[in-house]
Amino acid sequence: MAASRIVWTPVPAGREGGRLKLSVLVSPRLTGSAPTLAGYPEWLDWPAQRPRYSLVFGAGPAVAAEVTGPAPRSDLWRQLFPGTTPVVAAPAATAAAVTVPPIRSWPPVSARDLARSEHAAATAFQATAPLSVNRMASRGPGLAEGVRNGGGRQDLVTDIPIPPARLARARTLIAEALARDGYFLGGPLEDPESPFDPFSAAQIDFLLARQFHHREAADNPSPGGGSLAAHITRIAAGDPVDFHAALGALAQYPALQRTLGLVVDLVVDAGAPGVPAAGDPVAVALRVEWPPLAPGGGYEAVLPAVNAVLTAAGFAAKPTGTLVRNGLLRLDSDRFEVVEVDADGTADALSGFGQKLLDRDDGSSGPAVSPDGALPIAVDPGREPAPLPSHRADSIGVVQRGRARELRARLVRATDRAAAPAVLLADEPFGAEELEYGIRVDVWDDTTRGWLSLCRRSGTYDCGELRFEARDEGTVHLAHTTAADGDPTIYLHESIFAWDGYSLAASRPGSITRIVDGQEVTTGPDTDPTGPVRLRTSFRALSLPKLRYGRGYRFRARIVDITGNGLGPNDPAPDDFGAATPLVRHLRFEPVGSPDLLPAAPRTQGESLALLVIRGNYSAPATGFCERRIVPRRISPATAERHGMYDVTPTPVNPGGMDRPAYSEIVRRDTAGFTGGGEDPGGWGDTPYFDRPLLEVPYLPDVLARGAAFRGLPGLPPDEVFPVAFDDRLSWPRRAPFTLRLENGSGAPEYDRVRRVLTVRLPPGRSADVVCSSRIDEGDLDVLGIWQWFADSGLTPPPGTTVDDLRGLAAQGQLWQLTPRRPLRLTHAVRQPVTPAAFGKPIAVRVPGDTFARIVDVLTLDRASTAKVDFRAEWTEPGDAPVDPAPVVRSGRAHLTTLATAPDDPDGDRLRLDARHEFHDTRHRTVTYTAVAATRFGDFFTETARAVLTGTDPVVIAPGGFASGTLTVLNPADGRVYDPAEYEADPATGAIRRSGPGSAIPDGGTVEAGFVTGPVTRVNTEAQRPVVVDVRSSARPTAPDVAYLVPTFGWERAGGGTDITSTRRGNGIRVYLRRPWYSSGDSEELGVVLAVDGAPPPALRPWITLRGQDALFASAPTAAAPGAAEFPLATRTATGLVLAESETVPELPRVAVAAHAVGYDEARRLWYCDLTMPPEPAYRPFLRFAFARYQRHSLSGLELSPVVLAQFAQLNPDRTLSVALGAADPARATVTVSGPTYAGDPARGARLTLLLQTAVPGRSGALGWRTEAESPLPPVPGGGGEWGAVVTLPGPPGSTPMRLLVEEREVLPTAGSRLVYADAVEI
Length: 1323
Fold this sequence. Notes:
This protein is mostly beta strands. 12% of the residues lie in helices and 34% in strands. A hairpin with a 6-residue loop joins strand 41 and strand 42 (852-860). The model is unreliable at 142-152, 224-240, 365-379 and 513-532 (pLDDT under 50).
């Protein structure tokens, strides 16, 4: 079996006077077969072993070395390493080099830089309100910083997400880079498969961050073959806490290592022979004399050489690189950078935010709209505001760029050395970097202006039953980790340390819960004894500086070697900042949260913490009020400490300058909360309400929350800020909450400083969207990191805004990144809208052939209190089906549409209506439209009741009834809302019942019904007369069906006593029409189609009414085309109408029409229309009537049906019969008949006969008269249509019933005559 090995590694440790100092790390590698330490007697009491040491400088002779320091303690050794300590044999060295696994890292500076750029730009250009989701997402990839402020390109948060289709490709390229180089530092990546679409630095760097924190072996390349297996074997071999692992764990306790003899301090006389002169680098090797090292002793010494620099003042290992100078890490170089925020949390927040933006972007633009659960219309997700995520800054960290590359080089060299034969190690001396174990960090601040170590500690080591105490400095070990699933990939963070205000080498007092790699881990000041190594340690931090917001800090890092040596905290000059970081101020990046709200009374319907509501109606405003207690946000004790709230002036007794008596108050306030509130489990749940107005803050309130700031309060200009102080001249942590009260009324808000009540008033039906934020002092900006990022960026706000303006807005709590806003809604709910919706002047829009109409109007309404408007239509329409005995009138009604009214619509109190009303035909109707406006606040008046529904029996849930459209029925067991088809409701009686056996509501099941009692709507007729709209016909009427024409007559009697007149009116025609009527709807009339004026053109004559003389009788001439004025019974006349025939006959002139109403003759079951014309000079002219149905309520050009030509008809002339009794002799009467007649041959003139008749007793009608005398009634000479004669009566009037009968006959040209007139006058 191979001999066990002991590695003695010499580390130069300086020069003191004439002696060179050296420390040696003793590292055994036991390879025997014994399973416990009892099999290795030399190691049962190592401190008792006394090896002798000497040094060899270069090729010189050995120089004796003297062991210094206290002798090691065997008692401690035996307590820690008894003979039962397990020993797992160290693997034997091989000549083959071991493959170094890939090293994963990610550049945290990228996350910080992107966050800084985004927040600075947002402060400059979107100071008071964040962009919407759409506008954030539409800024385009990589908005040029030059566009913003003349700089180079800067990635945006929306550049972070990688399209899903390319994500796998990005992972592959990263894995290939890791496999090729063994590490990958981030930055843009070219894609050979998509040369014109490379991955940006933001995409790759943030993907690396995700892979770093969400570790998956599939993302990592695997070393090939046996090298991977060997590496996993080495990991597994180190798992048991055996002797070797225990010794390795002691590396963090150099004082204990020296006490146990594992670190040996040596000195060498600088003047001894063999020690070279100062100034030249030299290789230093150790020689060890120890009996077990003799041949056959079972041990082999491994004695690596070290390159050293020997000067007149020092003796140290020689660095091989440039990152170490004079024992200090070069934190001033560009390889290191201070990161002021939690970069890991920032990367995760920005990645999630960028992906959310792209997920919710809908491609539209527009200002951000604050979503509000009280709105009836959902806010477009793309218009939601998109505030950047906030960031944590619990510590200040230093990162090393490219750290994975450096570790890779070291591991390659180390693994090569591990496989090399021991004799070759002296030929390849170690450099200083290979001897490093970690660093010790010092901090300098601009207040104390001195350096303090962050690693000084006082340690207690409990070794079994013995205790060892020491004061020293701990070490920040620059370690790395691997995944827990056996994946050999190394995970190395670029952060080398992060200071959170406490020691880097000791835990805070008490247990602390942290999240480590997604696991909740509780750590404390003590370590527990593990396995057989019975070691328990406890450390107390010494010389702690203060981490305070606003202070400037520098850091320096002293190199610590593997023996725990390094520069002391006072070794570098106090004013030497050469290897220190630049001055960085510690700033608060967490925003000052908006105040919290506490309820002041049990919750009412529809109310929430952020929604205050009072209830009334348009005619009866609310009489009560609604309140919230406004209290400052809580902060942690650590945050309060960083604000310096527990700092006092240092004294010799209290050099730390901490307010120690405040500790008990801190403990009390850290866990305290408001108590004594009322319980409302059915309303506010676990949140109590506080009906007492004056509260005291029991916890630690935010130091910077000086008060609350409200914007948007009713009664103030929209942008005016109303501040209310929390401090009110109180010293922190005392703060004075106040009450926000909402009540009915108007006017500006009022604040009562004594009662601490801010009263805000709203009139009925009004809501106000208010934002509430914390108010800070302008001086507080100096400690807020987001503001400083903007101030340092040099960005210039848009024209019209200055940096001073932004400072003023910040102090008012109006910069959302510094003081996020909480939206509040104040509502004065009303059961019904404040005013009904009222129509303007609605019109019906139709195009030819449409069976529907678009109803268009602009209504007025009270938008603030109106959630929707229902439009309803009612009308009557005549019907004339020939199968029916008579025409009928039917009623029609329809629901036109419902328009929801968004409260923020730019139309204000106007509502645009453009709705389709489908009639399913083209006919005209006269429609009455009604607008029913519903309240916006119905949810605030909802009542609930439970009922058991059995069968289909109705159950009354609201004895007074409920408002239609407000009922909701749900299953109280699971909250599922039932479809209205599952039940039937009667709003008038307030009853509900199951719809039937198939209802989803179980028979006998319990339901919970929500409803609103009382009216919730208002109708337009409350404010205006009923609105009637003529919906025009969109098609021509059908042609009338003329049955026949008959002449019509009228008689007029006048006078009495001695003068009697009887007039027969002729010139009338009755037109009978067959059914049906109303082909175009209501108001359809019969039109006489006429020429517009003058003589009609020949082309028009077939389609219009014409007139002509009777060829048998000569008379005065007449016009061929009657005019519209010649029809006195016409209800209206119209001109310029288009004939239906013009669609087939081109260039037909337009016509006029004399429209006449029609009536229905129930006996004949025909429609009829009466026409009359003025008396004509022509005798009995002929007319050829052209008829068309006329619909005046029709679309222009479609008023007339096709023309129908009727049979010829003659007009009968008027005749007047006059009887004048003689004044001297009443028995003598003068009889006269007048009226147009024809001319020509006197032998063929009209013949009038006068008959004197007396009454026949007992008879009536025509048979009741007997002719006593008959004589001609000759024409009056020169009368031209007048006949007369004097007749002697049988006696004076009244002596006997008598009458005079006149008959007129035309004499035909051929032969014979015909009766054309008869009239009688009784005397």
